[in-house]
Amino acid sequence: MASLLRKDNLKNNLERACIHRDDVQDLVLLDESDAFPETNLTLEIEDKDEDSKSLASPAGSVSFEGDFPGTGAVSFDVVSADKIKDGRSSYVKYTILVSGHNKIQKVPGTVEKRYSDFEKLNTCLRKRFPELMEEVSFPGKLLMGNFRNETIARRSRAFEQYLTHLFSIHRVRFSPDFVAFFYEEDLRNGYAAMERGCYSDAISILEKCLPVQEKLQGDWHPDVIGTLCSLVICYHAIDKIDMALKYADSALSCLHGNRRDKHYLPLLHLDIYFHWMQGKDKAHLEANLAQLRKDGINTDKDINLKALVLDRFKS
Hints:
There is one protein chain. The chain is an alpha/beta fold. The chain contains eleven helices and eight strands. The strands form two sheets. Strands 1, 3, 4, 5, 6 and 7 form a six-stranded mixed beta sheet that branches. Strands 2-8 form a two-stranded parallel ribbon. β6 and β7 form a beta hairpin. α1 crosses α3. The chain is elongated and about 65 Å long.
């Protein structure tokens, strides 16, 4: 039976180890390849109230106030750490909750990573940004040690602070390495499923990516626009017009009236059609289309939204 270290015990574990928040990242921590006890162990951290999500809270998540378009306060919280046996080896799988306040996806996103994923990210970033990364602490390894609750609590806390520090550095946050760590592989899988015509599979993957994308990059980011357009395409393909309309509205909102964006016109045409299909008022959308014509833009062009999205992602 798995032993559980719950949220209400995390603070006590840190206090027993005499750990202060500013000291956590300087600890030398266990590598995922270290020996584990015979019993499986899962560290579980229960959901917190909004009032408890504070940087000052010793057992709370670490947050950073985004200062770029479309972002708000973002927090990284390790909500579970699971021991996984893979043949003769074992490792710890960390589930990270990415929370924030955004207009598209109110729910937090989650990603699952192991120590080697963090280590790869850290190595890549230090090669790409040696000066920017000088002040960023990364939890190190201990060649020998026991798999203790206190150790897992320390490492989880250190990873929260590590990701928060990276997020606060603009060039790091928008780097391909940061994107790859959080969602690039899933995004490629979702686009590949859409290209094959496996629209339901694509939806399940892309809807998992979207909350993480929007919170990390902001609702204006091309990756977010691309995912929203993809969900429009997928839901339209399986005749779920209400959901296609929802994502078309969101995508147009995220474009902030940027009529020069190549997605704008095909999205506008589709959104007008979806509103007509659902019996909803489309006058405001038709007014936008009329304004494009008035400005001399050819609104009768046949633009394939699916091709646009796939071409951008392949480039």
